[in-house]
Design brief:
Length: 503
């Protein structure tokens, strides 16, 4: 008898977890940053389950159904996004320190940053790397980088170090630095490309000569508390771990040398740390309905002249030029055009044409930020038809398949020297492309908003979608299924009732 509820519940739960129902449920709650963090915090209350002592006994019975639990878990894991990106599960920036030679009072190290993130890059004004020395180390000299502040070097007579601070901050040098101050992979103004866009430029290196440090691998102390700014917050770095020394093979492959000692630091990104409000939103339209669904109002802030005068600028304002050059130019806070959503970036998805075997979408990315030209921008789009994308105009494409079999995620980015620069707000502040998809007869439909994307990221940050019940309708769609939170809860309660009566 114990098997019966499983056979009933499995398909039910399967339906619930993988059907639009759960999608709607989550969307109903507003899949914005604030609510999703609440979802992460307490997934159980989200599902509206009253977890009383009575239900706990069910849970203990549930443990006898490992498969069931697996499904339940997969249900909840859908909303789990904390510092972990489901589309790029291994994304991280790894900082590797290779000690190359010992010096009379320390060592020379080559420090290399690898951006292993598929679609998150560091753009101008570039990275800032900081740490705290474990002892009284100083930086005698730097190649391919510089410390932002020298600090107090008054205790040194004669030679003065490059930096005496206990917690130095290092920045990259600009392109065009004299060759005698460069090393390989340096001097790109702190810009690091994403791994998917170009692995060759997803690396940044510099060299430091460190003094007053240990001079053997037993006396050297690894620095602590690494911080990576890009240049704002968002990255969290772990402790340095001593690893197997790196090997360097010469160009002709005939000799290999190795570092005296190597340690690695891994930094991961979290959008929740990076900014309090979203930075991007999505608007939708289609050929079959005149309605243009705008970005949700106040997605990235609200236009409010009373509490925040000057929080945005009208496009035709005479005060525009002075606002752009005025105060705040150095702070990287966006100066946005006044819109209902107030986002720096809007992505518009237009379902443009319907052919017999194909359908066509036009994507437009618009920059509303007067303070930013987005260089090497990228877009990640999730839509089930990406496994049959046939043609793509004027953007680069790479399929991202973090889970192997499901090919529904694409990374798009600009063509070099053509549209890889998304200009600041204004007449040139947009880029666009068209995508041609081949229809898969078994899944293709214009109904129920199927033709619209499931998820969009701009430069790795989640773009807020309009609520699903606002999507443009097919003209002949008589009525849309009304799926409310209440319905979902009732469905789940029915499941529980089944469990109670059979378990
Ligand atoms: C960092 O990313 C690389 C490449 O994806 C991966 O091999 C490595 O395991 C990651 N490190 C951590 C600590 O996640
Ligand atoms: C230090 O060097 C010795 C021999 O040179 C080696 O056996 C030891 O593993 C090294 N220790 C570390 C932490 O690299
Ligand atoms: C490093 O960070 C930890 C926690 O943030 C802090 O307790 C510690 O004092 C810091 N160490 C140094 C040397 O700054
Ligand atoms: C340290 O980082 C380098 C560069 O990313 C990598 O090749 C190496 O495998 C890492 N070592 C460990 C033990 O993670
Ligand atoms: C905010 O102020 C600007 C200029 O003072 C004005 O043009 C704009 O209409 C105001 N917006 C609202 C929503 O009141
Ligand atoms: C963006 O680029 C244009 C053309 O290169 C330049 O005139 C403008 O000042 C740049 N804007 C910003 C905010 O850097
Ligand atoms: C995903 O589908 C597209 C279009 O058919 C194809 O070009 C791409 O290679 C596929 N990617 C993978 C990893 O199968
Ligand atoms: C769409 O892609 C899938 C997986 O790559 C393939 O099996 C199917 O045949 C394709 N459909 C069409 C109409 O090309
Ligand atoms: C277009 O879609 C909207 C919902 O966004 C709906 O209210 C409207 O009736 C639709 N128009 C037509 C002609 O079906």
């Amino acid at each position: 008898m114990d098997r019966l509820p499983v056979t009933i519940l499995l398909p039910l739960l399967l339906l619930f977890c993988r059907s639009p129902l759960s999608f709607h449920l989550i969307a109903d709650l507003g899949f914005t940053q604030k609510t999703s963090s609440r979802i992460r915090g307490n997934p159980v209350t989200v599902m509206g389950l009253p977890f009383s002592s009575g239900t706990r006994s069910i849970i203990s019975k549930l443990t006898s159904f490992p498969i069931l639990l697996l499904f339940l878990l997969s249900c909840f894991s859908f909303t789990s996004t904390e510092a972990y990106d489901p589309l790029d599960p291994n994304g991280n920036i790894t900082i590797k320190w290779d000690l190359m030679t010992w010096t009379p009072d320390g060592y020379v190290a080559v420090i290399t940053m690898y951006n292993f993130q598929q679609y998150r890059h560091i753009q101008a004004p570039g990275w800032q790397l900081g740490w705290t020395w474990a002892k009284k180390e100083v930086i005698w000299s730097a190649m391919g980088s510089q410390a932002t502040e020298q600090g107090d070097c008054s205790r040194f007579k004669g030679n003065t170090p490059h930096c005496c601070k206990k917690d130095p901050t290092i920045v990259d040098l600009m392109p065009g630095t004299p060759y005698n101050q460069q090393i390989a992979n340096c001097c790109k103004g702190g810009v690091i490309n994403s791994w998917a866009q170009d692995p060759a430029t997803a690396v940044s290196s510099f060299q430091l000569s460190v003094g007053q440090a240990g001079t053997t691998n037993r006396t050297v102390r690894v620095p602590k508390n690494f911080t990576l700014k890009a240049p704002g917050p968002g990255y969290t770095c772990g402790p340095a771990k001593i690893v197997k020394p790196s090997r360097f093979v010469t160009a002709d492959q005939r000799r290999a040398t190795q570092a005296l000692m190597t340690w690695n630091v891994t930094c991961t990104y979290s959008q929740f740390l990076s900014q309090k409000t979203p930075s991007c939103c999505v608007s939708l339209s289609s050929f079959y309905n005149d309605t243009i669904v705008p970005c949700p109002t106040c997605t990235c802030g609200c236009m409010n002249n009373i509490t925040h005068p000057g929080s945005c600028v009208e496009g035709n304002s005479p005060y525009l030029a002075s606002a752009i050059t005025g105060s705040g130019k150095k702070s990287y806070t966006p100066l946005v055009q006044c819109t209902n959503h107030m986002c720096p970036i809007r992505v518009h998805w237009h379902v443009k044409l319907n052919y017999k075997e194909y359908w066509r979408v036009k994507i437009t990315i618009t920059n509303f930020n007067y303070r930013m030209n987005y260089t090497q921008w990228n877009l990640v789009v999730q839509h089930p038809n990406f496994d049959n994308i046939t043609q793509l105009f004027s953007f680069n494409y790479k399929s991202l398949t973090p889970y192997g079999a499901i090919n529904d995620t694409a990374m798009l980015w600009g063509v070099k020297f053509y549209n890889d620069l998304l200009m600041q707000a204004g007449p040139l502040g947009n880029v666009q492309s068209e995508l041609l998809f081949q229809k898969e007869p078994s899944t293709f439909t214009f109904d129920k908003g199927w033709a619209f994307p499931r998820r969009i990221y701009f430069n790795g940050d989640n773009c807020v979608m309009p609520p699903p019940d606002a999507y443009p309708w097919l003209p002949n769609a008589s009525s849309r299924p009304v799926i409310s939170l209440l319905c979902s809860i009732i469905a789940l309660l029915i499941c529980l009732a089944f469990l109670l009566s059979y378990a």
